[in-house]
Amino acid sequence: GQFVAAEIKAAGLAEMPLKKDGWNFNWRELYNQKKSALFFKLTLTNSPDTVEGMVMFTMLEIGLLYMDCIEVSPQNYGSSGHYDHVAGCLLAYGCYLSQQYGEEAYQGFLSFDSKTVLIELYVKKYGATHAGGQKLYFNDIVGNKLMATYLKGDK
Question: How confident is the model at residue 153 (pLDDT cuts 50, 70, 90)?
């Protein structure tokens, strides 16, 4: 019921969460497979060694930022999780990165594929546009709203 200070920072191999600790993705394997990807972790300011969420991005050749994977830590799953806005913060950070590094018509856009069961969540809760099949994206207008809602302070 209250906000806590958190940080989103680049993550290296040693900081990748392990599947054996309850994470769904094998983050270390993803890190080793895709050297061109950017990995970021969300941690609380007062406990920087505990990863609350992870996200992985790649820049597509057309200049569009693509979110390969996003995951909140097992202690943040569902309505009984410890922290509610972890995914929103990571999505908003992706929109921020897209504004910084996206090219021309794709600046401010973040694209991704979703598990079928999560499509409605991304559309209703976060404002994603469903582009067909499992493809979704945030445009620059929605991205600005996400950043205003979930990101505070220095980016």
Answer: low
Give the tokens for residue 89: 């913060």
Spatial contact of 86 and 52, defined as CB atoms under 8 Å apart? yes
Question: Whose CA is closest to 39, among 29, 21, 27?
Answer: 27
Q: What pTM does this model have? A: 0.94
Sequence-separated contacts (24+) of 32-40 with Cβ below 8 Å? 34/58, 34/68, 37/68, 38/10, 38/97, 39/10, 39/11, 39/12, 40/8, 40/9, 40/10, 40/11, 40/90, 40/93
- Residues 40, 90: Cα–Cα separation, whole Å: 8
Query: How far apart, in Å, are the Cα atoms of 6 and each of 17, 70, 80?
Result: 18, 17, 19
Which residues, including other chains, have CB under 8 Å from residue 50's CB and lie 6 or more apart? 43, 44, 73
